[in-house]
Design goal:
The complex is a heterodimer of chains A (about 240) and B (about 525). Chain A is of the alpha/beta class and about 240 residues long. Chain A has one domain: P-loop containing nucleotide triphosphate hydrolases (Rossmann fold). Chain A contains eight helices and ten strands. Chain A has a six-stranded mixed β-sheet, sandwiched between helices. A four-stranded antiparallel β-sheet of chain A has the order 2-1-4-5, with helices on one face. In chain A, β4 and β5 form a beta hairpin. In chain A, α3 packs parallel to α5. Chain A is globular and about 50 Å long. The two termini of chain A are about 25 Å apart. The relative contact order of chain A is 0.18. Among the domains of chain B are: about 200 residues, no CATH class; about 100 residues. Helices cover about 55% and strands about 15% of the residues of chain B. Chain B is built from 14 helices and 16 strands. In chain B, strands 4, 5, 6, 7, 8, 9, 10 and 12 form an eight-stranded mixed β-sheet that branches. Classes of the chains: A alpha/beta (about 240), B alpha+beta (about 525). The interface between A and B is medium-sized, with 35 and 27 residues.
Chain lengths: ~240, ~525
């Protein structure tokens, strides 16, 4: 299963919350490889452990057992400073609630990862990126002056600006209407196709999962199905199959 | 990251301004105290320097304490001729310096509320030694004339040619006002008054026939005053001393400087309390801001911000608040110094005035104190901000980890309040306590009390029980205000006796009590972290 094209590798990951009788197993042994340059969707009903999995893959949470490596670096044992460095170089985030900084303009929000890391801005790349996310005429606006879809575009720009090894998108359309959500999904797909941006998306929407190159279905903390490219209909069928078990 | 802090401040200008108000007031008090006391000190220094205008050496009695049995030694008249005969002496004059009260038209002595009422002689043959300048009329000649100070003439409406009563050591005598004079280069000599007679009249009036209170000597050009003082010394009886004018001026100012230093520390103590309140307001506001923005900090962490960068963002914010507040406070202090002086004058404590002194030390100390206190107050919230885990960026209603002391807060508060009451009780009612210890007990008690009440109130807010908060708030404010009122009045009594406690402490108390409720009112409601969207 492991190969040269994998940028995120997880082995036998478990996560238990609490202890004793009240302990809850969110993940019960997950192994996976995220292929480079591909869009991978993690799907599952609520409580399936898909969010926990993403948090652990992204180094936001620690597994109870098992290992996670990003670009060959074992992340589960890293200290705070090393994790900070890992996030700067390798990880981009897109959040359900956008998580933009309200006092900064759209442009400043997009450039924030670079200014935090103290890196120079590649102006060509920046204007290419801004054109791609369609924010050229909104750069000076504050998040409060932007629509939800525009805010998520800013957030995607922010995730892509440092060209991270992998972008983690956590329910990126969960807070948007269906039209706007569709546009955001197109943008994510486009970023994978145009820039070869490895992306992991957690979602519970079949329509969102359908843009992925590969769909992992989670239930009760385990991967129960592993689909390649699929139509929304295929996804719905697979989900029903899982919930019937 | 600095821009991040700056943006946050600019985006919440109103909050920032209100937050920094207490720091502004505290720094203003510190800078105002320095400006006021420096100005008074300069006026006194000028006053003493002017007293010895054109004088190289002063001959006068040694301190009374050295000759306790004989009282103040008197300079015999014949000494003047022998000093004048010295080759290095250019000129010398003997004079009388005593106390004489001017009597107003109602027959009441004109008093400067404790300020000195001088009476001295003027020798027309040696006018260069005279520190006063005529503004009207001419110098007094003969046994029935007097020159009075311009302040008294203006205040009481006396004019040249009018009679005025003067009381020296004997009964009140009536003199004719021949002229009106002002003293040297100071704008005002405060509440002090003076009456100038010609030399024989002064000697008779003060019962000092045949003697002087002192001799002022001018050296020939190029002669070192210290050398001249040494040359004169062999001529003197052991009861007299010969010192340079500069030394004499310095020793004259020493006593007043000690008095001014006392006023300075007294006022600075209030500035310190205001800064302490300010530190609490800053601490509190930043703590709440950090809690509200925990999601922002977590987001920053997910974007690759280190803990140190998060710390810096909050500390920079505190630094900028502190710097801006201190700058405003510094200049507000200039106004406060003028205002305090007006209050002094209104209550009859008319201190000598010269041009306002805005020393570099005032600027450095005010800015330093204001900025350091604000940054220190911001450190703990800043450290808490660094403890926000990155995963809080994706969690709803993320809360900050509580400090280990949090469960003990009510007990710490209670302990502090009782400790404070004990300290204050000791300071106020303890018998046989030295003034310094009393002041320390009172000052320390106030600080501990404030800390305890603040911890208790913060805890009650955390309980999210509005009934409790509504009950506690007025109780707290009234309680603390009452205690402070008692302490301040008591403190003022200890510090300076009656006359003081009607002025400054009351004024400062109002500033303080205004700052205290502000501490609660400015507190933004504690709510769930707001969505960063």
């Amino acid at each position: 299963m492991e190969n040269e094209g994998s940028v995120v590798v997880a082995r036998d990951v478990t996560r238990r919350y609490g202890a004793g009788d009240t302990a809850v197993d969110a993940l019960r042994g997950i192994s996976l490889d995220i292929a480079k340059g591909k869009l991978t969707a993690v799907m599952g009903p609520s409580g399936s452990g898909k969010s926990t999995l993403m948090h652990i893959l992204a180094g936001l949470d620690k597994p109870t057992s098992g290992t996670v490596a990003i670009d060959g670096t074992e992340v589960t044992t890293l200290g705070d400073n090393d994790l900070t460095r890992l996030r700067r170089r390798h990880i981009g985030f897109v959040f359900q609630f956008f998580n933009l900084l309200p006092m900064l303009s759209a442009e400043e929000n997009v450039l924030l990862p670079l200014s935090i890391a103290g890196e120079k801005v590649d102006r060509n790349w920046f204007s290419e990126l801004i054109g791609k996310v369609g924010l050229a005429d909104r750069l000076k606006h504050r998040p409060a002056e932007l629509s939800g879809g525009q805010q998520q575009r800013v957030a995607i720009g922010r995730a892509l600006v440092s060209r991270p090894t992998v972008v983690f998108a956590d329910e990126p359309t969960g807070n948007l209407d269906s039209t706007t959500g569709g546009e955001i999904l197109e943008l994510l797909r486009d970023s994978v196709d145009s820039y070869g941006q490895t992306t992991v998306m957690v979602t519970h929407e079949s329509r969102a999962a359908a843009i992925a190159d590969r769909i992992l279905f989670l239930a009760d903390g385990r991967i129960v199905k592993d689909l390649g490219k699929a139509t929304p209909h295929d996804v719905i069928v697979a989900m029903e199959e899982i919930s019937r078990r | 990251m600095i821009r991040f802090a700056l943006r946050d401040l600019l985006g919440r200008k109103f909050r920032a301004i209100l937050t920094s108000l207490a720091i502004v007031l505290g720094v203003a008090m510190v800078s105002g105290t320095f400006v006021l006391t420096d100005t008074i000190q300069k006026a006194f220094d000028n006053l003493f320097k002017d007293s010895y205008a054109n004088t190289s050496v002063v001959v006068g009695p040694k301190k009374v304490v050295d000759f306790a049995s004989s009282g103040t030694a008197i300079v015999p008249e014949e000494l003047l001729a022998r000093i004048k005969a010295l080759p290095d002496v250019d000129a010398a004059v003997g004079g009388i310096t005593d106390y004489a009260r001017l009597i107003d038209r109602e027959g009441q002595p004109i008093s400067g509320h404790g300020a000195p009422t001088f009476g001295f002689s003027y020798d027309r043959s040696e006018p260069q030694f005279n520190p006063t300048r005529l503004t009207a009329g001419r110098w007094a000649v003969g046994p029935k004339e007097v020159v009075i100070d311009k302040g008294t003439a203006d205040k009481k409406g006396f004019r040249v040619g009018e009679p005025i009563g003067v009381a020296g050591r004997g009964p009140v005598e009536t003199f004719m006002i021949s002229g009106i004079a002002r003293f040297g280069t100071v704008d005002s000599i405060g509440g002090a008054t003076f009456a100038i007679f010609d030399l024989p009249t002064a000697q008779r009036f003060f019962h000092k026939e045949g003697v002087f209170d002192g001799i002022q000597v001018a050296a020939k050009a190029g002669v070192d005053p210290a050398k001249l003082a040494a040359e004169i010394r062999p001529l003197l009886p052991p009861t007299l001393k010969s010192v340079t004018a500069a030394e004499q001026a310095a020793s004259d100012s020493k006593d007043t400087n000690e008095g001014i230093a006392f006023v300075r520390y007294f006022l600075l103590a209030f500035g310190g309390i205001a800064l302490f309140v300010g530190a609490f307001v800053i601490f509190n506001t930043l703590s709440i801001t950090v809690a509200q923005r925990s999601r922002e900090f977590a987001t920053l962490r997910t974007l690759g911000a280190s803990r140190r960068q998060v710390l810096r963002a909050v500390v920079v914010e505190a630094f900028l608040i502190g710097l801006a507040a201190s700058l405003v406070g510094l200049f507000l202090g200039l106004l406060l110094a003028k205002g305090l002086n007006t209050v002094f004058v209104a209550f009859g404590i008319d201190l000598p005035r010269a041009g306002t002194v805005f020393a570099p030390r005032t600027i450095v100390v005010s800015l330093f104190v204001g900025v350091v206190i604000t940054v220190v107050a911001g450190l703990m919230p800043a450290v808490r901000a660094t403890r926000v885990p990155p995963i809080a960026a994706v969690r709803e209603g993320a809360v900050l980890p509580k400090t280990r002391l949090a469960p003990f807060a009510p007990w710490i508060a209670l302990l502090a309040v009782f400790g404070a009451i004990a300290l204050l009780g000791y300071g106020m009612f303890g018998s046989g306590v030295s003034t310094v210890n009393r002041l320390i007990a009172l000052g320390g008690g106030v600080l501990v009390l404030f800390t305890g009440v603040a911890i208790g109130t913060a805890w009650s807010f955390r309980q999210r029980s509005w009934d409790r908060v509504r009950l506690l708030l007025p109780v707290n404010i009234t309680f603390v205000s009452m205690v402070l009122l008692a302490v301040v009045i008591h403190w003022a009594d200890i510090a300076a006796g009656p006359g003081w406690h009607v002025t400054i402490p009351w004024l400062l108390l109002y500033v303080y009590t205004a700052a205290y409720p502000a501490y609660y009112l400015l507190r933004p409601p504690t709510t769930q972290p707001r969505s960063t969207a």
